[in-house]
Design a protein that fits this description.
With 271 residues, the chain is α/β, with parallel strands linked by helices. It has eight helices and 13 strands. The chain is globular. The N and C termini lie close together (12 Å).
């Protein structure tokens, strides 16, 4: 058996490969140390005697020792895990592509001639969504935020192009002109509208950064991984921005485990 851990700010994801059959799990993150790893192994009822290798990525996993109870610890750079994750998940054969990891923050990684490169990242992501939602509505659970956002009308808070001008170039009237700007004078809105506007804004920010990076290296597809991209209200905001640049977003159903998929793929390819 081989195991991979992705230590995120919010969640720690685990992939267990037992003779080619891979299972995935997720737990709230704690301090990255061997006590936490042992706790997770016990929670999963795994026999430590049959574990042949452990891959770790994310957080401060690079600070861990190189072995644990005689099991080798393979440390994987997070950029490598993101790149490997997209390549494995989407079965990408193209030597040039972009993957965007949507977690507590957001990271953009390019594969150029089969070499992974960190294009950069932004501090806006799921942590921003949960934190601002907690301030504005008292709700911090991401699934609840998404549920409410899909019921809301962000037009009660967001100004659209059609609200302020007749046209701007090729932009449609329903493109966002200014997030939350109607809140300056409109008090007739509900929490569901706040969640709708907030989730869309997070998605639009991620989408804008994503398509600018895609244009930078000349690709027309972006592969998404990370749990924040599973939130439908955020994904809608991402796609609205990608459409402006005629960029296609790709979303696999297992993308929430993208980083740990990359870690276990790297481990299997190199041990």
């Amino acid at each position: 058996m081989k195991i991979a851990f992705d230590f995120g700010i919010t969640n720690t994801d685990i992939a267990c490969d037992h003779n080619g059959e891979i299972s995935y799990f997720s737990f709230p993150s704690e301090d990255v140390n061997f006590d936490f790893i042992e706790k997770l192994i016990k929670l999963l009822n795994l026999d430590i005697n049959i574990i042949r290798a452990i891959a770790v990525t994310g957080g401060k996993s690079s600070d861990l020792a190189d072995s644990y109870k005689d099991i080798p610890i393979i440390k994987i750079n997070e950029i490598m895990a993101i790149g490997y994750g997209a390549k494995e998940l989407y079965k990408i054969a193209d030597p040039n592509f972009i993957v965007v990891s949507c977690g507590t923050g957001t990271a953009c990684v390019a594969c150029i001639n089969n070499e992974f490169e960190h294009l950069g990242g932004i501090s806006v992501g799921g942590g921003t969504l949960q934190g601002l939602s907690n301030i504005l509505t008292g709700i911090s659970d991401s699934k609840k935020i998404d549920e409410l956002a899909l019921q809301g009308a962000r037009g009660n808070l967001d100004a659209f192009i059609g609200d302020v001008v007749n046209d701007i170039g090729s932009l449609n009237a329903d493109v966002t002109a200014s997030n939350f700007s109607k809140a300056r004078f409109n008090t007739n809105f509900k929490d569901v509208d706040v969640e709708s506007s907030l989730s869309n804004m997070i998605g639009e920010i991620i989408g804008t950064v994503s398509y600018l990076n895609a244009l930078l290296i000349g690709v027309r597809k972006i592969y998404f991984i990370g749990k924040v991209s599973l939130l439908e209200s955020v994904k809608d905001g991402i796609d609205k921005r990608l459409e402006l640049a005629n960029i296609q977003g790709k979303y696999d159903g297992m993308r929430g485990f993208g980083n740990v998929i990359g870690a276990i793929a790297y481990l299997n390819a190199n041990t």
